[in-house]
Design a protein that fits this description.
The protein has six helices and two strands; from the N terminus they run ββαααααα. It is mainly alpha-helical and 114 residues long. Strands 1-2 form a two-stranded antiparallel sheet.
Amino acid sequence: MTDTNTNETPKQVGGARNMLGDFAPKLAELTDDVLFDDFWNRPELSARDRSLVTIAVLAANGDLDQLTFHLSRGLNNGLTQDEIKEAITQVAFYAGWPKGMGAMNTAKRVFTEN
């Protein structure tokens, strides 16, 4: 999910309170306020670059549930499907073929649904 600030730069916002706020309020608070509101909006990397790094790390770790969310976020942050597929292909060589294949299957599903 993105929001726009006065500089027309997409501000990254989380949605953990909507998903988990009633079940795990502290985790939801930390996710929205620290991870997204603070960390994702630091100026040292663009949201696009943060998305690319995040997608690569999630793919390398085999975290497919979180990858599903971040694939859509990456597209919203300006990544193309081809760039994401290339990053996942790179991950397959360095993190392991099964993780790369799992991530690519997840990307195929997300891209087909969008």
